[in-house]
Design brief:
This protein has 316 residues and is an alpha/beta fold. It contains 13 helices and 11 strands. Strand 5 and strand 6 form a beta hairpin. The chain is globular and about 70 Å long. About 3% of the residues have low confidence.
């Protein structure tokens, strides 16, 4: 059963009071993602996702953007509020279409065909989220072409079983590239995807949040942290991101970035280690820079020291 869900109050954005979107009435399905109450939606991205979920018109949805920019969390938090069950799969170079469809497995001493995430999603009307889709072999992904367009899923391995798509079945892909390969050379394993496959998707590009939005997220996550410290953390994060992303004329200068997830980790650890001689630096190491090359670690810490000024206390 479905129900009309008010957009403004459900997603915490400005919208006409009578504007609704359709969701599921059952709020107890085990595959509904966990709802994060403090999540802040960006209105433009939310509009695009809701428009796709409402009328896919034979398309999939491809969400591209740098690591940690919130591609997957956008979809899962929308689904959590619409009570929409989700099957999320992290793709990799060895993942095959048959893994998504299903396979015979020994169950109770007998061989039995067990439907995979694709078959279950097609049958039951789940959102199938294919994370890091640009890591998967394009020849395997081509097998999804007809299914995305709304054609039945045929499973020859299971006696030619035919599954007709549930009206709420959707395919959403995420990737650090837009399917054309890694132009900056920072994402290992990214593959150029088949043009015919990509043509079946509409696209959304998600960058890192604007400082005001990120500050509101930080304020909710670490309410005791002074605003001036939050703002300086965000400035550091954006300087690191600039070095990571680079420009159209030059590739990124460092091989890691500070995502919103990493920024939240840094803030939370700073509060946890507030008794350390330099809690900001101590937490930054554990949140990010201990996995950086020594030169890059030094560069990031220098950025932080410059941004924080007197607030950046040197450890003995």
């Amino acid at each position: 059963m479905y129900q009309a869900i008010p957009v403004a109050t459900t997603f915490g954005i400005q919208a006409p009071p009578k504007m609704t979107t359709e969701g599921f009435a059952d709020a107890n399905h085990p595959r509904i993602p966990v709802r994060k109450e403090g999540y802040v939606f960006r209105k433009d991205h939310l509009r695009d996702v809701l428009a796709y979920l409402s009328k896919p018109a034979g398309d999939g949805l491809y969400i591209t953007g740098p690591t940690g920019s919130g591609k997957t969390s956008l979809v899962t938090q929308v689904a959590a509020r619409l009570n929409w069950p989700v099957h999320a799969v992290t793709c990799h170079g060895r993942l095959e279409l048959s893994d998504l469809i299903g396979q015979f497995t020994l169950v109770g001493g007998n061989m039995q065909f067990v439907h995979g995430p694709l078959a279950e999603s097609v049958r039951d009307g789940y959102l199938l989220i294919l994370n890091e889709i640009d890591l998967m072999d394009p020849s395997e992904l081509a097998g999804l072409n007809d299914i995305i367009e709304g054609n039945p899923l045929v499973i020859p391995q299971n006696g030619g079983e035919v599954i007709r798509p549930h009206p709420k079945f959707r395919v959403i892909a995420t990737g650090n590239s837009a399917g054309s390969g890694d132009r900056v050379g920072l994402y290992q394993g990214v593959l150029q995807q088949n043009l015919a496959f990509l043509d079946r998707f509409r696209l959304i590009e998600i960058g890192y949040p604007e400082p005001d939005l990120e500050d509101s997220v930080l304020a909710k996550a670490v309410p005791g942290m002074p605003q001036v410290i939050r703002e300086k953390m965000i400035r550091v994060a954006n300087e690191v991101r600039k070095l990571f992303v680079g420009t159209d004329d030059a590739p990124g200068a460092i091989s890691l970035t500070m995502s919103t997830r990493g920024l939240l980790r840094w803030a939370a650890l700073t509060v946890s280690f507030k008794g350390a001689p330099n809690a900001l630096e101590y937490a930054l190491e554990r949140a990010l820079t201990l996995r950086a090359e020594p030169e890059q670690r030094t560069a990031i810490h220098r950025i932080a020291a410059d941004v924080f000024g007197d607030d950046w206390k040197t450890s003995p």
